[in-house]
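Ticket #4471: structure export looks truncated?
Reporter: QA, pipeline team
Priority: medium

Steps to reproduce: submit the single chain below to the structure queue and open the exported record.
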Amino acid sequence: MAFQPSRRPFSALWAWLGQHELGVLATVFLLAAALLAFIWLAEEVGEGDTGAFDRAVMLALRNPADPADPIGPSWVEAAARDMTSLGSVTVLALVSLVVIGFLGIVGKRSAALLVLVSVGGGRLLGEVLKDTFERSRPDLVPHAVQVHSASFPSGHAVLAAATYLTLGALLARVQPRRRVKAYLLSVAVLVTLLVGASRIYLGVHWPSDVLAGWCIGAAWAMLCWLIALWLQRRGQVEPDVTHGGAPQR
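Actual output as written to the record:
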């Protein structure tokens, strides 16, 4: 009899994924077109085809009479500065260390490692890509905050996506109610989007930089989470929680 490869592992994998809190994350990847969208954006940026779009969006967020003045009242700009700090290396490192320490104390060492790999890997990935493309920062409008690194992709967008999406999914795993899971994941996505949008509003990134950052950051978070699910099936990561409060198997 000819050898027939079993489809059961793939069926079991998709059944497993369907039972977990990846719906919102999957939606983010579909909307951003994930890795393929990043590749397309990188090609378009390299060819200079995003210039008109980038300039139109940035100018739309500025006072036509004074490009140095972002639209809206002064408190909006202050809020954008506060929001952009949520994607900084300092803030995300602090948040990650607090979470990792807590997970270590309660014995969730595998989950702590997941956070460390996701955040650390996201940071490294963003820096490697910046050094690869070496795109200059926007010079169309004055920068509202100081910046020093290359522009593509947005490091804030990459790191915010990698960190907040991972933490949102991690918190959702220990919640038995689907509404709570959906809420946590929605907040993670919202914060990620606001951090990226603040970079455009403050004039320190082209819109294509932020879109690319969301794509690659979300793709990295998804990859880390799929690996975590695979390890969970092997019994090497703490199990999820069901509606009844018992671990999923």
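Status: closed, not a bug. The export was complete when the record was re-opened. Leaving a note from the reviewer for reference: Strands lie at 62-63, 66-70.
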